[in-house]
Amino acid sequence: MGIDYTERIPNNVDLAEDRRLKRALESWQPRFLQWWAEMGPALPTQDVYLRTAVAVGREGWAHFDHVPLPEYRWGIFLAERDADRRIAFGQHKGQPVWQQVPGEYRADLQRLIVIQGDTEPASVEQQRRLGLSAPSLYDLRNLFQVNVEEGRHLWAMVYLLHAYFGRSGRDEAEALLLRNSGSEDSPRILGAFNEETPDWLSFFMFTYFTDRDGKYQLGTLKESAFDPLGRTCEFMLKEEAHHMFVGTTGVDRVVERTAQLMREHDDDDVRKYGGIPLNVIQKYINFHYSVSLDLFGGETSTNVANYYTAGLKGRWQEERRKDDHLLTEAVAVVPRIEDGRLAEARLPALTALNADLRGEYVADCVTGVNRWNRILGSHGLGPVLHLPHVGFNRKVGTFAGHHVSPDGRVLAQHEWEAAAGRWLPTAEDKTHVLSLMRPVYEPGKIAAWVAPPRSGIDGRPFDYEYVHL
């Protein structure tokens, strides 16, 4: 399916055929552009070497070229429709998927779309000043690619709200631009999207851990019986893959540079040589991983059980699961704390779907840590990086209100307070990392705290001028 770039709003949903919807979205567009000007990237640029979607098929869906950021063609793109697609789970299993919103599920579907939509502009707001301290033009370009695609993902959700939810949907679309990350009066809905992203180590951790949460949330919505939502999320996953690539390879390169400095100076404390020590990298892992785990919600949820039964939100890779896709009799084992000790409980699988999704996410995150430890191993250093226990530093779910060490010990308040500085970034750690954040805008050059990438973007070399300032 090609994308029509002759329209004011590029799309592949025949927007020209629905004049009322087209007018409504064209009315929302100036407010989006105003939000981008005020809350988007703070660094002025002439143009950036960006990827733009030109089709939604499996091959050849993107085009690369230098584009001025304010002129990027944000649009509305859904994956190709499967006319034979059937609902894969829940009480409507086997029935044709819905092309319109059933009245009884209207409020729930709108809420799911609003929450997803709220995360997209939030990350742009969190990252808006990072361009001022970019370690290279390559990294600057990747930041802006992530930003424009998060903006497009906002468009994806706004289209659904306008097209299928009437006045209440239009009101929610307006509200997506009124909330701001970190605002005291009108913060973003989910806690992780109100955290600061003040430095590039935080950015790499965010795009590894928090964007990976986005992958799994989009994967559950991709299964939805509401076909326009499923097709929207299917295409968003194509774009999301690059965001996680930025995080994975970004942390790769920080670990690589730290290992190089450790070997070169035979010293674990690489601060004095302009690097980030491994123990500080571990603290950032601990923080961003634990905050991202909170995005999965409580381990048990009747709301999520109802979403599944209704067909609104499935499991990760639902159709590959070898069960009845109803889960009315299935059970799941869920961690909890009982009498000050870690324990497990057997609960109905329907109410433990958040824990199921979180388990898929955790297994995926382990692959990154293994990857980073292999880099250390290539420098003769032992595997030292790890994921903390799922109960560590949690504010949501069964572990909220408890203190759990990274190795899984339940601690008293005074024990936690005495040790937290060893496990989470301290003010001193953050100050050191921030002190390294000095911009490098010369093609082919890079900051001393991070290694260069192994290859460039779209076959271009690392020293290509990805951004014209």
TrEMBL record:
<dbReference type="InterPro" id="IPR012348">
    <property type="entry name" value="RNR-like"/>
</dbReference>
<dbReference type="InterPro" id="IPR009078">
    <property type="entry name" value="Ferritin-like_SF"/>
</dbReference>
<protein>
    <submittedName>
        <fullName>Benzoyl-CoA 2,3-epoxidase subunit BoxB</fullName>
    </submittedName>
</protein>
<dbReference type="InterPro" id="IPR017635">
    <property type="entry name" value="Benzoyl_CoA_Oase_BoxB"/>
</dbReference>
<dbReference type="InterPro" id="IPR052703">
    <property type="entry name" value="Aromatic_CoA_ox/epox"/>
</dbReference>
